[in-house]
Amino acid sequence: MSSTETQRHIDLQYYRRTPLLQGNCRSDSRHFSQVEARQTLAFSVSGCMLALSCIAFCCMTGCSTDSNDVKRYKIEGEVNFGGQPVPHGTITLEPDSEKGNKGPMSTGVIENSKFSIPSERGIVGGPYRIRITGYRSGTDTSGADVNYGTPLFSNHEIKTELPTKSSSQKFDIPATKK
Fold this sequence. Notes:
4-stranded mixed beta sheet
């Protein structure tokens, strides 16, 4: 076997094992075209790069209002459940788009019934849908994987109008909510 035939045989074996090209390589090496295989591989790679570029662009630009273009306000407050402080929890403040509020969403953590969201991540005011989840006690509230403990209630929703200024709010969740 000459060196050219050997190289062609090695190339054929490589392209047969490449999943993207298996449909383009015939078992008979006389019908195998290295140029076709390389063009198919190049086309597949460029198609993947285009798709990844589009996904990256969408992730960077986002789908909602640019939060740098709107005035945001600090919001803080407390959350009680059945008249008692909520030891740990989360609060999500989502602008009510059904009522025309298209501002950015804000989230915060509840510790010893208190929460505070700074103006950089705060609210724009107007109609909001607020979702609160409370937990009995937490074992570890540091780091990326937060374990808040046993749920007291989950996703309690409150629809309210929030002011277009920094404010303090108090949310009382009825004890019958689970």
